[in-house]
Amino acid sequence: MPRKSLIAANWKMYKTPAESKAFVEAFLPLVAGHTRDEIALFPSVTSLATVVEAVKGSAIAAGLQNMHFAEEGAYTGETSATMLKAVGATHTLIGHSERRQYFNETDVIVNKKLHTALKHGIIPVVCVGEHLHEREAGLTSDVLCTQLKIAFEGVSAEAATPIVIAYEPVWAIGTGKTATPEMAVEAHKTIRNQVAEILGEEVAEALRILYGGSVKPDNACDLMCQAEIDGALVGGASLKPDSFAAIVKY
Ligand code: 13P
Q1: What is the 74 CA–ligand 1 centroid distance (Å)?
Q2: Ligand 1, closest atom to CA 176?
Q3: Which ligand 1 atom is the nearest neighbour of the CA of 93?
Q4: Which of 7, 137, 189, 204 has the most C-beta neighbours closer than 10 Å?
Q5: Cα torsion angle, 62, 70, 114, 99, sign
Q6: Residues of the chain with pLDDT > 70: what percent?
Q7: In a domain, 1, yes or no
Q8: In this structure, is residue 141 part of a structural domain?
């Protein structure tokens, strides 16, 4: 079975509910009838309910950029899986490099969050990727394999079906420096091989691996036309409806 690509917008800390609604209203007609790929929007937590409501009736999904692993509790500022589902969202990002960098999110926390998402039937988009100094030291493969090994600990092949991986080289995020298609393909192959080792060939073959890091309308095809690249996680260029629609329709 060919893998259906997922093209996702990570709006990071941008857009009020009103701005999010205006985006969806402008975006929907631009992608009407587009069925080749799945589309998901990851707004800020305060815009999530608005986005869920605005995309109703379309095939577009909505998710959180971050979710806590605990069921509930005294975790000021955090959002639980139950809260995510209660507003009608279906996806969550886990372990985005900005979470790792600014909020001390470790591979162990990523693993806990992954278990929670799977338990609640939420589609997790697990982000992995190397820093520039790691790439320059020839450590890209080691870094990705370690991140995956820890992230997948205790996850069974049966439970792993919904998981999506996003390969986001940290040096390519928000910098305008995109990985070349060759670099991305090589990293995606490393990821797929590692998942095959952990969970078996079947899971690895079906696994969608997205690329993220300075994806723009003019490089979207170079990247997503590669058989190894099953979609994109887009930051800056997803903030404008026409630009994100151009990426979706690469
Ligand atoms: P940019 O597309 O702005 O580089 O961000 C990528 C990203 O972090 C998506 O999660």
Answers
A1: 31
A2: 4
A3: 10
A4: 7
A5: positive
A6: 100
A7: no
A8: yes
Surface-to-core class of residue 199, CB atoms within 10 Å of its CB (0-12 exposed, 13-18 middle, 19+ buried)? buried
CA distance 38 to 63: 13
> Is the minimum distance from the CB of 173 to ligand 1 under 6 angstroms?
yes
Catalytic residue positions? 96, 168
What global pTM score does this model have?
0.97
| pLDDT confidence tier of residue 191, bands split at 50, 70 and 90 | very high
State which residues form the domain around 149. Answer: 6-248
For the chain, the domain total comes to 1
Any atom of ligand 1 within 6 Å of the Cβ of 65: no
Q: Identify the helix (H) or strand (E) that includes residue 223.
A: helix 220-224
CA dihedral 157, 159, 160, 164 (to 10 degrees): 170
Q: By 3-state DSSP, what share of the chain in percent is helix, strand and coil, each rounded to 5?
A: 45, 15, 40
Which of 10, 165, 167 has most ligand 1 atoms within 8 Å of CB, for mutation?
10
Tokens 């999904």 belong to residue: 61
Give the integer Cα–Cα distance in Å for 163 and 123. 6
pLDDT above 90 covers a percentage of the chain that reads 97
CATH at residue 141: 3.20.20.70
Within a domain: 43: yes
